[in-house]
């Protein structure tokens, strides 16, 4: 018996082809409750994959810290760039 095709709305983002992206985005729930549910689902997936494991390591926390460092650098980039071009004489 052949597998039935999965509707575009039920596919994951990585499984959606570029031509189907508009249809996939149209099927998302962009209400405040839908966005909160999506964030909660993403947090649960991250937590179960990297933090809540039997043989845990430093990998999940290191990834989180690296993301924080990258975001804080982006937030302060204008200030860093301004200091770089300032003349001190």
From TrEMBL:
<keyword id="KW-0813">Transport</keyword>
<dbReference type="InterPro" id="IPR019344">
    <property type="entry name" value="F1F0-ATPsyn_F_prd"/>
</dbReference>
<keyword id="KW-0375">Hydrogen ion transport</keyword>
<keyword id="KW-0406">Ion transport</keyword>
<keyword id="KW-0812">Transmembrane</keyword>
<feature type="transmembrane region" description="Helical">
    <location>
        <begin position="56"/>
        <end position="75"/>
    </location>
</feature>
<dbReference type="GO" id="GO:0031966">
    <property type="term" value="C:mitochondrial membrane"/>
</dbReference>
<comment type="similarity">
    <text>Belongs to the ATPase F chain family.</text>
</comment>
<keyword id="KW-0496">Mitochondrion</keyword>
<keyword id="KW-0066">ATP synthesis</keyword>
<keyword id="KW-0472">Membrane</keyword>
<dbReference type="GO" id="GO:0046933">
    <property type="term" value="F:proton-transporting ATP synthase activity, rotational mechanism"/>
</dbReference>
<dbReference type="GO" id="GO:0042776">
    <property type="term" value="P:proton motive force-driven mitochondrial ATP synthesis"/>
</dbReference>
<keyword id="KW-1133">Transmembrane helix</keyword>
<protein>
    <submittedName>
        <fullName>ATP synthase subunit f, mitochondrial</fullName>
    </submittedName>
</protein>
<keyword id="KW-0138">CF(0)</keyword>
<dbReference type="GO" id="GO:0045259">
    <property type="term" value="C:proton-transporting ATP synthase complex"/>
</dbReference>
<dbReference type="Pfam" id="PF10206">
    <property type="entry name" value="WRW"/>
</dbReference>
């Amino acid at each position: 018996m052949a597998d039935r095709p999965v509707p575009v709305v039920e596919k994951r983002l990585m499984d959606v082809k570029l031509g189907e992206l508009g249809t996939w985005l149209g099927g998302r729930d962009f209400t405040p409750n839908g966005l909160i549910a999506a964030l909660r689902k993403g947090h649960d997936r991250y937590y179960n994959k990297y933090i809540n494991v039997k043989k845990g390591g430093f990998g999940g926390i290191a990834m989180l810290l690296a993301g924080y460092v990258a975001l804080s650098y982006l937030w302060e980039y204008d200030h860093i760039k301004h200091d770089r071009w300032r003349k001190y004489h």
